[in-house]
């Protein structure tokens, strides 16, 4: 074959003849970052309020973050999405949340472009652009950018971290998890098979160790290559937990109560210049007085309990700060702190998920849209010393969330400033600006601006295409100029939307519609409020009646922006998020599980059990000393298990922290078939019936159904994975109480009919096609 007909040499920069002695090799160019390119570290904290860090007025000790702020830039007018997944999608893509596919949290794909809950194929992430620009790319922590029906081991991984630009990943793909007993950790593309955890395990510490290990591994092999580290903390999202020694350090700090602490934070903010002169604290109804009682009106026992809740939260924030300190110390050891950009931010405002009195039963709160009876489990009495520990899935009361969001009103999920106004600081000791150019910045910055800014500072161009498709035009704009120029302009406008609620910020004005409009009112209609943010940043004076023309213009601007950003349709009647695609039906088919494998993933397991009757069958052969867990589903936040202890069967049922137990008769050695039935009763309850070889053996007459996010830990066969369902059993048999002394052949789940209380609507493929055609 002649040279002209040869294939595979196109673009080759050397010379190829038929013999090596007559040829010249070519050293293919490798991807390399620009000379002197800085490392980039983004630390994202979950549900951290505007005032929860020292540079923003907090009393919580955050010396490491304070140090970064002292030599960096503190942005006082940073806004983000009102809930976590949309903020994370915008951060990584530079797109507005709906254009990035995340009009809401990553729990359901209702079948519309702005709510796919998957990152678009034509939207390169910050990690993908930096990797193409010669960076190593690492991530640890919370992902929450994959629709939950694709989190299982057979799911499509197209929207998992490694497929979206990260070389390495370790963390939780889900929206939250226990810090003491994380329910499911993933390394790269695979679940970590870890039947039990060591004594004293704590997730924040492991995430920090993993991040340091990724950096160390890179430096052991390449001394110069810059890296991007996205450290997305699972703290301080509920369940709020911390280590006992860190909680002890906060003891007594919150005895004065939330009213006094809010005033104290506000005073510090004014001293620091974090809030403009003339800012006022919202009071009365604007400050959610109906949800938050005055501290002085509480009983002594309530004050003690509520203060302890906040001590746990403060300890968790301090642990995040300690993690930042360990990262900074390692960068100093490597001599790389000066060449590292560090961003610290929150994904949204502080949350009122704990309700007026807080909760020690976090998963019992996730029952929205389900008609629970009046005696539903809302809180479980537990000793104060257990708060924050592995036995309590708790959350602080809404009064502390109001403190967290000082000086703003409302909370996570809402569109008042308390939901979207968050802390942001940037540190770059070696930045090419004068030290005097650092300090406070009051430019309006939105979360989508972070990716373009970091790419500009790194000297890396964003990818022009992804998978052969032209990249979407980003919505974010770089604010890099503000690092060297306090007078540089920020953005002037941004739309917001959350569960049908609407807001528009433009040129210092903010229009807010706290309720979804009706179709008769139109997308720009309904009730709107108007605030002059320049003079009233905490939204205390509604001036809508004084500027009706301006308000109408802002409402219409919001409508145009909504069409430009795939915001529609609005969820006017609650039906949008009840719709689930037909492909999820397969997740509710009967399944046979082998013993000792990693747990069946949370959402996959929930399709078999939540809001329905179901049966669990087990096939086993017992020896004379057989013992251990046969099947377990859940954790201290709610779950059930079937085990053999002392020769007898044990059914343990954890109703959001309240334990129910039933013991069966002694089992003889040999082959047995077990059936555990959970049959729905009125009032969202189950009757739990255990049968052995077809004969009744034990029963729990009525227990509260586990629904919403419970059971949270998935189904494990042959051991109790993660957080134990039954703590007393765990104390007697630590390490998961693995089944021994016999053969556990398999466990089969047989889901029954869906409950009449299940409002889920299955979206058939043919209906979706017809809707598009119409």
From TrEMBL:
Pfam families attached to this UniProt entry: Sulfatase
Residue ranges of the TM segments: none
Coiled-coil annotated residue ranges, if any: none
Keyword Metal-binding recorded: yes
Keywords of the record: Calcium, Hydrolase, Metal-binding
InterPro entries cross-referenced by the UniProt entry: Alkaline_phosphatase_core_sf, Sulfatase, Sulfatase_CS, Sulfatase_N
Sulfatase N-terminal domain location: 38-460
Matching PANTHER family: ARYLSULFATASE, ARYLSULFATASE FAMILY MEMBER
Stated family: Belongs to the sulfatase family.
Stated name of the protein: Arylsulfatase
Origin species: Agromyces soli
Species classification: Bacteria, Bacillati, Actinomycetota, Actinomycetes, Micrococcales
